[in-house]
Input
Amino acid sequence: MYKKILIATDGSAVSNLTACAGVAFAEQMQADVLVLYVAPEYQYPVYIEIIPPSYPSEEEYRIAMRKAGVSHWQPVLDAAARRNLEATGITAFSDTPAGKIVEVAQQQGCDLIFMGSHGRSGWGQLLLGSVTNKVLSHSTLPVLVHRLIKEPAPQ
Output
């Protein structure tokens, strides 16, 4: 039914469990997997006139975020490989993660977006819940929202 599934992750424990559920779902569908981490855009410090030498350049920031993205989606790629699924990971940059998730899914030819109802815990959980709602309201593709029955233990 589905040939390519985008699994959105933020690297949190909840998101990792959701991503594993997404890989299991992809296995049932025999679908390829695209794992996406959306990093925030680089922000110049606006509160000072001179950028301090310790502040990362835009290129240093992008390199660091790409490394973070790999660390977030590599375990999902490994899980997909253990199930003999084709899988790719992407780190994208945007201050509007929901829009970027929808955009990447369309650009990459995905036919389903798989994401959690919430990601980070605490205040971040509210934020990511709103990301899920925005994806649901803006996507023309089907969106499967996975809800964990039990929260993972704090790390």
